[in-house]
């Protein structure tokens, strides 16, 4: 067997090292690129989803103009996500609704009965109250539960209404009532003839405690 000169072996070894080094560099370059592509795609999707819809808000003030909380409305696909945060209230349940007029005036008159005056009556009845009985109005919402600390939070989704419903010609307003909403669920043993007109209109949620115009 013939022996190749040492110089040839040296050259072949150097070539092999160069090839292996190039492959390793390519692998090192490919992996981070693949990871970066994945992260970028995910981040873009999340950003796009988060910015799909318009955001509305309202500040809830009581009749003494003290701020009690805020409401935020986000449009998500075919529904609205409503988030409420309050503080400084007595613990317990409170009725929470959207009213049909964006006007939160203290010592005001009800639009349908000027002789009926009181805090925030300017906001009118529940949004959609002319189309059904309570609790099937578009503006009938889940109750707020306030903790012993006086703080309360509520977040939910509804497809009963749209941003356009909240931003019609006369606007709309979020309302916290000082009583519990019974959603017109009156057992027949208490009312054989069913709930009365007041209950079917308001759920007996009581007076209007805090009001906030949507969009302000």
TrEMBL record:
Q: How is the cofactor bound?
A: Binds 1 copper ion per subunit. Binds 1 zinc ion per subunit.
Q: What CDD domains does its record include?
A: Cu-Zn_Superoxide_Dismutase (cd00305)
Enzyme class, first EC level, given as a word: oxidoreductase
Recite the UniProt keywords alphabetically. Copper, Metal-binding, Oxidoreductase, Signal, Zinc
Q: Which family does it belong to?
A: Belongs to the Cu-Zn superoxide dismutase family.
Q: What does this protein do?
A: Destroys radicals which are normally produced within the cells and which are toxic to biological systems. May play a role in favoring mycobacterial survival in phagocytes.
Stated name of the protein = Superoxide dismutase [Cu-Zn]
Give the organism, scientific name.
Corynebacterium hylobatis
């Amino acid at each position: 067997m013939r022996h190749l000169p040492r110089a040839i072996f040296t050259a072949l070894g150097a070539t092999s090292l160069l090839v292996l080094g190039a492959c390793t560099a390519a692998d090192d370059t490919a992996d981070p690129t693949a990871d970066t592509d994945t992260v970028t795609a995910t981040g873009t999707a999340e950003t796009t989803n988060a910015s799909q819809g318009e955001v509305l808000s309202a500040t809830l003030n009581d009749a003494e103009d003290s701020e009690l909380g805020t409401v935020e409305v986000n449009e998500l696909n075919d529904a609205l996500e409503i988030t409420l945060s309050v503080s400084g209230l007595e613990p317990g349940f409170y009725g929470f609704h959207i009213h049909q007029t964006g006007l939160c005036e203290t010592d005001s008159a009800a639009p349908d009965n000027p002789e009926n005056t009181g805090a925030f009556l300017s906001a009118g009845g529940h949004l959609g109250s002319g189309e059904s009985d309570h609790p099937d109005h578009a503006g009938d919402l889940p109750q707020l539960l306030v903790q012993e600390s006086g703080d309360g939070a509520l977040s939910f989704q509804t497809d009963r209404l749209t941003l356009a419903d909240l931003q019609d010609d006369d606007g709309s307003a979020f309302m916290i009532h000082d009583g519990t909403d019974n959603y017109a669920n009156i057992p027949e043993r208490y009312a054989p003839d069913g709930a009365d007109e007041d209950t079917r209109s308001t759920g007996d949620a009581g007076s209007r405690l805090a009001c906030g115009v949507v969009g302000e």
